[in-house]
Specification:
With about 120 residues, this protein is an alpha+beta fold. It has a domain at about 1-30. It is built from 1 helix and 3 strands. It has a 3-stranded antiparallel beta sheet, with no helix packed on it. The longest helix has 23 residues, at about 95-115. The mean pLDDT is about 75. This is Collagen-like protein. It comes from Bacillus paralicheniformis.
């Protein structure tokens, strides 16, 4: 019989068997378990059963352009082929683009001013 010793867990001593590596193994016995009427416990590994039949081969995967992507985008960043209204925040634009917008806004304001005086 395996070496017997006491195993301490949270201040409680329980008897267990040494599995040969120094780790305690507590034997579990199931009432009414027999070869004729075996009991199964979900999650406990038992003896491996026979290998099942091989399944049918499915259609091959079709990987097209842009079908698989994984990008870690930052906050307030949009990745799109068609950028919609409100998709881009001004804080995310570089200084050249901001300068161009400022120039266009200045031209619009000048046109509005010249129309109002006419």
């Amino acid at each position: 019989m395996a070496e017997q010793f006491l195993n301490e867990s949270n201040g409680v001593f329980t008897s267990a068997e040494n599995d040969g590596t120094g780790k305690p193994v507590t034997a579990v016995y199931l009432k009414n378990n027999s070869e004729e009427n075996p009991l199964y416990i979900k999650g406990m590994q038992g003896e491996p059963g026979p290998k099942g039949d091989k399944g049918d081969k499915g259609d091959p995967a079709v990987i097209e352009e842009k079908s698989i992507t994984h990008e870690m985008l930052g906050d307030n960043i949009v990745r799109s082929n068609n950028i919609g209204t409100g998709s881009v925040l001004l804080v995310n634009l570089n200084s050249e683009v901001k300068a161009k917008f400022d120039d266009l806004q200045k031209q619009i304001d000048e046109l509005k001013g010249s129309q109002a005086s006419s």
